[in-house]
Amino acid sequence: MKIGITGGIGSGKSLVSEIISQAGYKVLNADDIAKQIMVEDESVRELIIDAFGNESYNGNELNTKYVSKKAFSSVDNINILNSIVHPPMVYKINELMNKELDDSKIVFVEAALVFEAEVDEILDHVLLVTADEDKRIERVTKREIGRLSKKEILERMKFQIPENEKENLADFTIKNNSTLADLEMKTKLFLTVFESMKG
């Protein structure tokens, strides 16, 4: 069984992934896979340089700050970057998940853009982690001190499918407006559900 963990910026999806990982399950990270592809896949590198310029890379390293700034400057730019990175990323996620299922019954992938990147098409179920917007902004502001302003956080939220739409698309939802202990309890409950479903 392939399960996606998704949620907007500041929702707590990474904490849920961590709880699931600590419970002994394999959790792939779509962001890490995407970054690896952007560095190691020559054709992807060339397309990114063509779209955003030579400054996209510092030697072999991806200039993450520069590429993020360029990408989040307009809907067109984010669409260009996504069209370059998402197809090989989804292919790689599927490959890694299938490999993992040789030894396990359940494998997870954490992906912020599970619907936007159409990762959901290779998954059996999607677990959405959601929280009220003010909670999400507060969390990200604390986490990204000196890195992201409230304006930049709101800009990034704009490029993601609204939370209420995601709730309609997801199979399961965890509301994360309370404590870490509450989030842990809800996550473990879902793990029990997934265990009972795997057959």
What does this 3D model show about the protein?
The protein is built from nine helices and seven strands, in the order E-H-E-H-H-E-E-H-H-E-E-H-H-H-E-H. It is 56% helix and 14% strand. The protein has one domain: 3-Layer(aba) Sandwich (Rossmann fold). It is α/β, with parallel strands linked by helices. A five-stranded parallel beta sheet has the order 2-5-1-6-7, with helices on both faces. Strands 3-4 form a two-stranded antiparallel ribbon. It starts with a strand and ends with a helix.
Would you summarize the structure shown here?
The chain is an alpha/beta fold and 199 residues long. The chain has helices at residues 13-22, 30-40, 42-52, 64-71, 75-100, 133-143, 150-158, 163-169, 180-197, and strands at residues 2-6, 26-29, 57-58, 61-62, 107-110, 125-130, 172-175. The strands form 2 sheets. Strands 2-5-1-6-7 form a 5-stranded parallel beta sheet, sandwiched between helices. A two-stranded antiparallel sheet has the order 3-4.
Strand order of the largest sheet: 2-5-1-6-7
Characterize the main sheet.
Answer: 5 strands, parallel
Radius of gyration (Å): 17 Å
Beta percentage is: 5-15%
Order of helices and strands: EHEHHEEHHEEHHHEH
Unreliable stretches covering 5 or more consecutive residues: none
Class per helix and strand makeup: alpha/beta
- Can you tell me the number of structural domains? 1
Distance from N terminus to C terminus (CA atoms, Å) equals: 9 Å
Helix proportion: 55-70%
CATH architectural type: 3-Layer(aba) Sandwich
Number of strands: 7
Overall shape: it is: globular
What's the CATH C level? Alpha Beta
**CATH superfamily, called what?**
P-loop containing nucleotide triphosphate hydrolases
- What is the mean pLDDT? 91
The CATH topology turns out to be: Rossmann fold
Number of helices: 9
